[in-house]
Amino acid sequence: MILDGKNYAAELKDVLTRQCTALKETHGRPPSLHVLLIGSNPGSLVYVSMKQKRAYDFGMQSTVHRLDETISKESVLNLIDELNQNKEVDGILVQLPLPAHLDANEIIDAVCPEKDVDGLTSINLGRLLRGTPSLVSCTPLGCMHILKQWRSDISGLNAVIVGRSTLVGKPLSLLLTHANTTVTLCHSKTHDLEIHTKQADILIAACGSPKLIRKEHVKPGACVIDVGMNRLTDGSLSGDVDFDDVVHIADAITPVPFGVGPMTVAYLMSNTIQAMKNAYGNLD
Ligand code: GUN
Fold this sequence. Notes:
CATH superfamily of the largest domain: NAD(P)-binding Rossmann-like Domain
Distance between the termini: 33 Å
Radius of gyration: 19 Å
Bound molecules: guanine
Helix content: 40-55%
Strand content: 5-15%
Structural class: alpha/beta
Number of helices: 10
Order of helices and strands: HEHEHEHHHEHEHEEEEHEH
Largest sheet: 5 strands, parallel
CATH topology of the largest domain: Rossmann fold
Shape: globular
Mean pLDDT: 96
Low-confidence stretches: none
Number of domains: 2
């Protein structure tokens, strides 16, 4: 079974676009997403322009604030403060990575938690840890959505995540824990990786190492989700899973591209809609 993220995202888009239309009719404006893009990291330029395009496709308003690589911390914090106060701004996203002179944690924590559509503020990560999440990072939400398409009930299964980032691995470990799976979080210092990954009914690769996961890492019949997006020296795109090697042994697998990527973007839109609904006291 190929887990077709592009198709799931298209289904989600239909639902979310209708919600945007309804919000526009009720409140006189669509949900509004503001992205801070600091500097000119080539990957970030591509991601941000794609997020903006998709926001328009969903019927949302989107503004990108392109800021100079050398901008001061104070200027960034002032802009975030302005956006926090602006009632017409629903979602704020600070594209990562940031230039070295800016402390990502400090900048992210300046975003009001109710507008933190990346789910990365200390408050939103704490709410997730406690089991009372509000806005949760988009890639982990996308992975959970894909898993539901594989099996509606994953309770009791072994889930193994490779990669412990704050953006993906750690929040996903919490979502999977709340879904009653038994979670193992592996990383670059893990000894004998395959001993752990071989136990996985659900294997998630989110470590940024092209084709790290091969068939010897995978239990026959597992569901394999590949969060990796690695640009190889020949210009081609590769996941963290060796798809051709693993596809025959897995029960289900996501492709790269068109697996997790489209779901991440769809959940960014979903979070922005949720933030607008929350702001208007419309919790459906
Ligand atoms: N850089 C790469 N992926 C992401 C993401 O999902 N959110 C943010 N803010 N920055 C990123």
